[in-house]
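Lab meeting notes turned into a lecture example. A postdoc, R.K., suggested we walk through two folding results consecutively so the class can see how the record format repeats. The first protein's sequence and structure tokens come next.
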Amino acid sequence: MLTYVKEVFDSFSSRVILVLAIVLIAGFQYMFWYSEGGYYDHQRLMQQIQQQSDVNQELKERNRILGAEVYDLKNGAEAIEEHARLDLGLIKPHETFVQMSTISTQYQSTYVDPEGKKDLRNNEDEDSPDLH
């Protein structure tokens, strides 16, 4: 078998054909992986399509919510009243307005004397030995 291969590739034309075949295979492989429309280009485009599909899903959900809100505003007085209460501070007659504070119990004021003499949060005197 090995002698047959040597006999086939002894001639110049068979060597040229072998080199041409190797160059063509390498060229086709390069085109498959790296050219425009090749494997890597295809993978990048598929990733972009997936990202755009995710964005489109989020926008569809937002549009669905906005559509429901528009429908409520057109057809129901409750949605209009809710917006008036939240955005404009609507209080009906004979209602009591109660505002809840969101400040936690661990809140410490950070008031500083405008004259810059000392921080009023600290109960230490200016003459204490720790300050000098």
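The second example is placed directly after the first for contrast:
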Amino acid sequence: MVELVMVRHGESLANQNNEYTGWTDVPLTAKGIAEARVAGTVILNTNIQFSQVHTSVLKRAIKTSNIMMEEMNQLWIPIQKNWRLNERHYGALRGLNKDETKRIYGVKQVAQWRRSYTTIPPRLSVPDNDRRYKQRVKSSLPTSESLEMAFKRILPYWQDVIAPELRQGNNQLIVAHGSTLRVLIKYLENISDADIDGVEVPNGVPIWYTLNDDLTIKSKKILTQKK
């Protein structure tokens, strides 16, 4: 058996402002920093010792992982930062208020963009011009992504990097984004394309899987702070 814990970053400024974020690099709020500390504390209480941490190249996830590792007294362990764990790319929607888009485009259309597995939001005219991707991304950069496209981007990192570590009995921690983790939950729990629509991943709440040797799920727990 081996342990896998996944955590969505703490509240970001875009979460606070109810905006689409995607690959936009926004900071944590004070609440988000507090959520990261709580996540680290509740994991500390499980006594899980990790071999590696995996996160995206976006600072809201990186900062959350650093805060958590400090709270867990595991700040020394290796951290892998990879663009494949970035949030789903929301294209031309990013930076827009979610309620405002409902007014402009209609509730039904926005629900399709946000929750459908295959619907692609409006694309950017050009991809992101950011040096963090120039040497890392071998394929063309996305200008927008459906959840299905994000799945195809993220899964190779799971298969090539995370899963081999788990098979060797090395506990792994993933600190990433809502859509990133929905994709991995879909894969691990064999959730259908239609049913993934109902899966929510709250900020800063650890999801703890104990996996069998073949990486099937033995148990799943949602870790919350005891009051």
